[in-house]
Amino acid sequence: MPVPFIDLxxxxxxxLSRWAEECAHLTKTTQFVGGPVVGKLEExxxxxxxxxxxxxxxxxxxxxxxxxxxxxxxxxDLVLVPDATFWATFEAVVNVGARPITIDIDPVDxxxxxxxxxxxxxxxxxxxxxxxxLYGWGSAKLAAFREFCKKKNVFLIEDxxxxxxxxxxxxxxxxxxxxxxxxxxxxxxxxSCGDAGAVYTSSTELADVVRKLGNHGRTSHYGHGLxxxxxxxxxxxxxxxxxxxxxxxxxxxxxxxxxxxxxxxxRKLGVKFVAPPAAYQENGYLSVALIDPDKRAxxxxxxxxxxxxxxNVYPGAMSKQPGAARFLHAKFGGDNADTLSRSVLNLxxxxxxxxAEVDEVIRVFAKAIGR
Length: 371
Ligand SMILES: Cc1ncc(COP(=O)(O)O)c(C=O)c1O
Known about the structure:
By secondary structure, this protein is an alpha/beta fold. It folds into 2 domains: 15-245, Type I PLP-dependent aspartate aminotransferase-like (Major domain) (Aspartate Aminotransferase, domain 2, 3-Layer(aba) Sandwich); 248-368, Aspartate Aminotransferase, domain 1 (Alpha-Beta Complex), CATH 3.90.1150.10. It contains 12 helices and 16 strands. The chain has helices at residues 15-28, 36-49, 60-70, 87-95, 114-124, 142-152, 204-213, 235-245, 248-269, 293-305, 336-343, 355-368; strands at 53-57, 78-82, 99-103, 128-132, 155-159, 167-168, 171-172, 179-183, 197-201, 218-220, 223-224, 272-273, 280-281, 289-290, 330-332, 344-345. It has an 8-stranded mixed beta sheet with strand order 1-9-8-5-4-2-3-15, sandwiched between helices. A 3-stranded antiparallel beta sheet has the order 7-6-13, with no helix packed on it. β6 and β7 (171-172) form a beta hairpin. α2 runs parallel beside α8 (235-245), α3 crosses α4 (87-95) and α9 runs parallel beside α12. It starts with 14 loop residues before the first helix and ends with a helix. The mean pLDDT is 98.
């Protein structure tokens, strides 16, 4: 039985009819860009995250750029980023005119290494840093990152694109962030029907700047106080997300169940399957198995032959991307991110995967590793 890496079509029985009604409503009320539907979404996200304010925008990459610009990061400023992340994190820094410094990751939680980060701050005195909550959890040292950055006057932006529904010490991971950004790309845990994103913040002043920057720096309809751009959230995305939020708990429960099952089975198979640090409840965004890099291609060939989808998220460290060389100010630390990129193997994990599908993935994977 083939099992896809991800299937975005597993809708709840009443989802499509409700979505059709919402589409008709949004069309009849011409809520195409902005409108009450966007305000309603921002309020729902604020309540869910515990943030002080939420501002919707066009995508997660823009959210990062809006957050960087809001704290004044620009030409020539230094920004620390983890060496393992999606390229958008690195790209956003360059796009606002700043220079990225990559920091290696902690080999246990796979997030930016706190001790290296501290040394890099002392060495390079950056203006800001982006801590990425990767794979569906975050750093074991999240509280220390926040506290240290506050003490050192480093603006800490948290890239929470992959962290919808993640809890840290029982609260939303977004709750105490100065600025956290999210993506609603359809494959995310809270995904839209197109590209969309948002900035969550604990500061109403920063929220106000973000909102202006993402709407042409507007202070009135034809008054422009800042150089911004158009990064407004579309009404259809907001409508789709408002509806999806109603099903979020069930989707999260389903993903977490699959992640827990994998973790159990992989332990029995003697394969390293990364677990979130104790303070976290993961969201089941990705399953992360670590395979001997010399054996990974062989394992993948068997998965492919048997129709099992898989991914390598991500197959290369940021500092080694061909596009990085011109802009990388420094690379700090060793090569844990590179080792991760050569060993990471992600198996199918999405909401409403059936038990039979999970059984099949485990059966084929066991065969692939010769068990
Ligand atoms: C960690 C991370 N940062 C940023 C982004 C960028 O988001 P978007 O694709 O919505 O621009 C993504 C999404 O793929 C991501 O996973």
